[in-house]
Every structure is written in C-alpha cells, then in structure tokens.
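Problem 12. The chain below contains 399 residues. Write out its predicted structure in token notation.
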Amino acid sequence: MTTSTINETMMSLKNQFLDGNNSALSKLPTKFVQSVTVLCNQFLTGSWENVVEGDLEMERVTGGNSNLIFKVVNKKVPVDIVLLRIFGSENDAITAKDTLVFSILSERDLGPKLLGVFPGGRLEEYIESRNLLYTELPYKSSLTLVAEQLAFIHCLEVPLNKNPQMMPMINNVLDEIKSSISDDFLVDVKFTKIVIDESLVPAIVNYQTLVDEAVFIEKVLKKMASPTVFSHNDIFGNNILVRNNVIITEAEIVCPSSEHPFVIIDYEYANYNVRGFDFGQIFCEFAHEYNMPELPGYEIYQNLGATDEQIEFFVKVYLTKYHELKGIKLNDLEMEKEVDKLKVEAKIGIQLAHYFWSIWNFRQGLVAEVQGYDFHPNGIDRLGLYYEHKNRLQSILEQ
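Solution.
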C-alpha cells in the first residue's frame, strides 16, 4: 500500500465524519484498517512489526476537536496500545507546526512520545489517563503542578516566529468570519449561561463591533508590553491528562509512579504570545464545564471565577520555577514587583481569553457543526464576560 493511498484513505474517513456520517465510524472501512496496519508495521517495533489486519482493535477517542483520534490496541499483546491522530486541518503549515512542537515536547518529556509521522497524521504514545476536572483545577495541589509545567513551557526555545501572535490569531479568526458571511454579521445579545449588567454590553453586536474591539485590544497590548514567551494558548481540563491511579485532593496529589502526574497535551494553538494570555486562559477555566449532556453543551459558573488569592498563589509558584529554570536570582522586593506585574498581566489575560474564544466560537458556529455543542451561545456568553471587565483593559491605557 503506497503512502498516497494511506493518505487518501485517512482523509476520506475524516471527511465522512466531518460531513456528519457517523456511521463511517461504527464499522471502520477495510481500507482504513489496512492502512493503520501498514503504519504500525512501518513505524512501531516489537510486537507491532508483524501485526496483520485482524490483530488490531480500534476505538475512537472523543475530545479531539477537528482531529480524528483512535486508540489502537494490538490484540495479541493487549498492553501494547498507541494513539492514532488524523489531522482535521489540511493546511500543511498548521499541521507541520503542530507536529514540530509535539516532537520538541516529546523529546523533553513534556508530552506523549512521538512514535511516527505520516501525511495527514501521526502515531503517539497512549497514556492511560483521564482529563482533569474543572473542579480540580483550582486546587492548590493542581495549581502548583500546572504553574510549574507552564514555567517549563514558557522557557522553551522553539523554531517559530518569535513575534507575539495575539493579534495575528485574532485577525485570522476575524478574517474567517468575514469570509464566511454574505451579509453583515449580526448578533442579538441574549445570554444563555451568564448574568451580567446589560448596560456594559452593546445591545447589538456586528462584525465591525468585533473589529473595533480588536483595535482596542491591540492598543492595550502595545501599552502593556507583556513579555513574549512560547505559549500553549489552550490549557484547560480537557487538555490536561491525569495519569491513572493518581489521587487528587485540595492539599496534595499522590502518584504511585515516578512519572509526572499531569501531562499537558494539544498544542494546536501554540505559538509565541504575550505571557498573560496563558494565565488568563487557565483562570477562565475555573468556571467553565464542558461535555454537558444537553445543549448548548457547556456551563459557566460565574461564582467560581479565580480569586485574587488563587491568582497570586499561581503567579508565585510560576515565577519561582521560571526563575529557577532561567538561573535568575531576585531579592524579596524584586520578586514582589514581578508578582504584582504578572498579576496585572494575568487579569488582562482573562479578558483577552474571553474575547478570543468568543470570536473563535462565532467562527466555529459559521463553519463547523459538532453534535451536542452549540458554538454561537458560547460566543455570546464569552463576549459578555469580556465586556463585564473591559475596564481592566481601559485602565492600562489610562496609566
């Protein structure tokens, strides 16, 4: 079987799924199973080298966004399991960047091992795990581990554009919204999962409203001058794997092995960005629950937003680890100034995250459909949360 045949087979299955043909996944096509068998023969060693079509058992793993992900088990040796990822994007630049970052993190034990790369996808280490719950993320024990891992990520040197990508990210999404609408994009602002002072939010939001906010945000970023670091940009519970048998409580995390209890995954949106965005993204997720059984598929608990105490705790753990990794020594006064500065960046980051994921949801609502999830209401709710504390951004311009 040729490489081009394997690629065509993978893309065919992906397109059937994206077109809503879920029956394509109930009984996997013979050609697809044959293709996966060849890939296992080519890229994997040990018991995988001689597997034949009937030796594989495949199960789709949910939570892959636009990617198709399968757990692949060698039935002859059931403990031998790998993950097969078929890229949703056909943009070579995006998939190349994703695999480059994945490879670097794999080599540095900051993610699953990369086992093989082929046109349209890759084979990865399968980690027996579950996702971190949104209720567990605010625990001091969890925040400590996530803050330290974030410091590792922010210290990485990755061969990507070193300019901050916040505005390109925003403008790319806005451009895609514009190209997906025939008339002006008009949003009737009615909140689904939040309650805020409606006087803070425009009654009608159109495409130009979103563009005006982007212009405003760009001015804030220039004035704030947040350091640029390699950033994940999408850390939340579904992107944090908790290894099997790890016990999490508010006070401690007990791991029976020497491996790190948490593995941060999915670097699809990773790039060099303003430092505060990763912090804001994490703090937003204290109050967001996904995978709800009924539409719109999410819940927002406004009373669970990150407190000043939680933000300060996280920032201090992060800076301590970051300075250790960089070999930086600060006295108490210098450390206090760093903490205060990063707390401001983090709160700005919360608003940046609300705005970005608002327009991202609007875009997704125009170009994609996911069973059990409604993008548009989430876009409106996130925009409302952005406007609720937009004054945080305004205060930067007034300094």
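Discussion. The longest strand covers residues 68-74. Students who got a different answer should revisit the alignment rule from Section 12.3.
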